[in-house]
Amino acid sequence: MTIVGVLYVILAAMLVWSIIHGQKVIRTERTDAVFGNPIRTMGGWHWVICGVSSLMLFWLTFSWDAGKAFFPEAANELCQVAKLNRAVKPIRSAYPLDNRYLLSTRLLERDFKQIDLLYVRLSGGDFNSEDRAELNDIINLMRDALAAQADSKFISPDTEGRFKEIADRINRVADDLLDEGYPGPADPQLLQEALAQPGWGESSTEIPPLPKSDRGRGFDAAAVVMEQIAKDYGKIRNDSPHITSMIEEIKSRIDGFVIDDSGSEHTIERRAELLKQIEKISKRVDDLKIFPAQITDDVEAALVNLENAMDTRQGPLKMIDTWAMPGGSILAGNNACSEQGSGRWLPKPSDTLATFLHMANPNQGYKGFPLLWFKMKPVAEMVGFLTPDWITVLIPGDHARHNDLGQIEPSFKDKVYNIATSNFNSFSVPVPTGHIWDSIMRVLAGLFLGILLGVPLGIFMGLSRFVKGFFDPLIELYRPIPPLAWAPLILTIFGIQDDGKIFLLFMVAFAIMVISARTGATGTQLSKIHAAHSLGASNRQIIRQVILPNSLPEILTGIRISIGVCWGTLVAAEMLAGTTGIGFVENVARKQSDYEIIWMTIIVMGLLGLIFDVIMRFVIDKAIPWRGKG
Amino acid sequence: MSDLVATNLDMVFSLPDETTVHALKDVNFTLKKGELLAVLGPSGCGKTTLLNIIAGFLHPTGGSIKLGGKIIEEPGVDRGMVFQQGALFEWLTVADNVNFGLRMKNAEQSEIVEKVEEWLEIVGLQGFGDTPTYQLSGGMQQRVALARCLINNPDLILMDEPLGALDALTREKMQSLVLKIWKETGKTIMIITHSVEEALLLGERLFVMAPRPGRLHKEYQLPFSEMGLTGDPRDIKNDDRFVETKEEILEMIWNMEEEIMGKVESN
What is the distance in angstroms between the Cα of A36 and the nearest Cα belonging to chain B? Predict the structure, then answer.
């Protein structure tokens, strides 16, 4: 059994255990009789196991990963079944097995409707009475020809025989399928070739088509025979002499009809148009694909017979198809078979993990950039980045000039300039890099700026009528705008690099931080401020020592919310533009319909969000233990 | 010379709906240094307004109030306050709450440590310095609030129903503590209370205030606080004079409230 199989069994066992354990706990631990007691929701980690294993089992099942693990050979056999289904499809679709109505019934209904329309158009008055009578006759004839095809009186014995023959041949295929020995011993060379094929999902050919098992060869051989039967069935025409003579007459009368070219250009055009319609429908009548209903009974019975035989021969395969490959089935194409259903957009966990491990390899990465890794960066670069170049201007003295010997003796100003522009030798330190790191840094940068500016403004808005009144309209006006609505503007102003994204995130975090800091500041109890005043605190000290710590719970909650919203906005912003970041990865994968990478990025985002939130919960517990107890 | 002198204090609040409330009218009194004044009265008689004016949180609309000859303009360290709910800074430890005032004026670290020790001992909280305040019981929180106020060495201590939220037993203990501190430090104390019994037990002087407009209705000079320093408070409570005064004041306040209700009903 594969790793996935073992995992599946373990997950199933965990699911069962957690439910049993949970029931036991409920029975032994009746802590409350009142609904709504918050203590009821405490603890219960076994339900976490229950939830996680349910989710994983669902994923494994609906992505067919479990089916692949437990029945690795089933896909190849189902591929052969799919081939036979595909071969019989042209015949089956003419019968009320896959469709609601018989094909002949559908054709008749359609053609009669068209003919009725022709009558209506003919009465429009574009023709003189003589021509109209002639055309009316032709349409009547077409109607009769259609009706004659549906009439068992006019069917030729030959056609009847061909239907019987097709039914016999289908029945023979059904009998063959029921015979375990069919189609005889395998050709050793073909068998070797089939066994040499890669397994299910191991190559770009999803399910290699050559049959490996005896059962598979049975369906494969039946499919070949069936294809021929379907071809022959397609050639059957309802061409009894009575009907063909009617068709001949219709043709000759249409050919003999001459369009009257008197009257306006418009009228002549309309006459030609109607004649064209009549000709078109006469060609449909000429298809001769309509048969009396009774004559098809044998074939329909044979098809049902075949279906039963297929079910019998499939045996457990049928069950595997239903339970291990839910939400779809395996379909046969020209050169390969493929999974159709949830397996298409829900990749297998094992494949997703493999893709992730492949991309997590720093030498591989995605689009030439690792997911999360480090690179050696000289300290000089960082010093140069942090030191603004204009510092050189503040240094007294001049830049060096060459002397008579052509030597250049760098001045102190030059040395500072070299430092500011990273132009010096230094050792390197490892610095994180990669798509994930870029995304995290953008979020943290936007969040940091938002806190740095938002918290002071929020607190002053909570304290001063002027600051509140002045900034309120500004903030309340821009806050409800979805951040992505700004994206086009911001990308134009700041470009597609980090600046624009960080500014976008700053805007998101800023509004949330202002509001939460403001709520915190206005929520300070007056008696605490009075107490601080009478203890001799100055205004500045009251802000620092009383209002700020008092707003801390709201500020931290604001940060927690900001992180979530920033993260969502960032991914969307990265989808718009840019060349790195987890949102960029998903956007490229989206264009290529690479569902494994799409799911991988979704899971990475979810996990990162979870990590951020867990960290914030920890910080909140540590920083404001008095919350709710004051 | 640090007497508290109120002359013709007047306080009128203007409400947003154009009506006015006369919270205080013609309040005159002098509180000598070292006196313990209790203020009683029905709800809405301006007790808290008076306290807030003395603390400097409100400006009277008429008259003046002076402490030690200086007009009170704004809050200051010479007047310490103790609030009903303690108003402790719950993000700080007991010690950091107590030394808040010292830290605000950037006192020496050694002085801070020494004084905190001293005051924690006086209020009976030795060894609780590092405890977070949110873990303390109500009575202990009020002890912290007392210490926090007293460490600044104020001339006048203002207490706004400081024991109102405590259970009966804790309340009695805290009353003795207040008396003890008053005796030992010789501070001027003004205490607002709802409880007639508490006012009689603690107050050396007692003002009964009347509402609409808020004014001083009657003043008493009481012996019970002196007795409480030495005797058992339960004996005092059974004293004939104590019971008699208590009944008198209770009836007075009862009548005031009846009168208010009557006014409301006749409206």
Answer: 26
| Partner B, chain A 550-569, Cβ-Cβ below 8 Å | 550, 552
Is position A340 within any domain? Answer: yes
Give per-residue pLDDT as tens, B74-100. Answer: 888 888 888 887 788 888 888 888 889
Residues of chain A found within 8 Å of residue B56, distances taken between Cβ atoms: 533-534
Domains contained in chain B, number: 2
- Phi, psi at residue A431, to the nearest 5°? -125, 135
Per CB-CB distance under 8 Å, the chain A contacts of B132 are 625-626
Interface membership of B85 toward A (CB under 8 Å): yes
Coil, strand or helix: which one is A590? Answer: helix
Percentage of chain A exceeding pLDDT 90 = 42
**Amino acid B265: pLDDT:** 54
Q: Would you give the DSSP letter of residue A405?
A: T
How many distinct structural domains can be found in chain A? Answer: 4
Range(s) of the domain holding residue B8: 1-25+50-75
What is the number of CB-based contacts under 8 A between chain A and chain B?
A: 72
| Domain carrying residue A217 | 68-346
Tens-digit pLDDT profile for residues A513-567: 999 999 999 988 888 998 998 888 888 999 999 999 999 999 999 999 999 899 8
Q: Which residue of B has its CA nearest to A536?
A: B77
Evaluate whether A474 touches A515 at the Cβ level (below 8 Å).
no
Give the chain A residue nearest B149 (alpha carbons). A535
pTM of the model: 0.75
In a domain, B125, yes or no: yes
Q: Which two structure tokens, joined as six digits, stand for A504?
A: 């976008």
For residue A628, pLDDT beyond 70: no
A623: exposed, middle or buried (Cβ count in 10 Å: 0-12, 13-18, 19+):
middle
Shortest distance between the Cα of A560 and any Cα of chain B, in A, equals 20
What is the pLDDT at residue B267? 46
Same domain, B126 and B169: yes
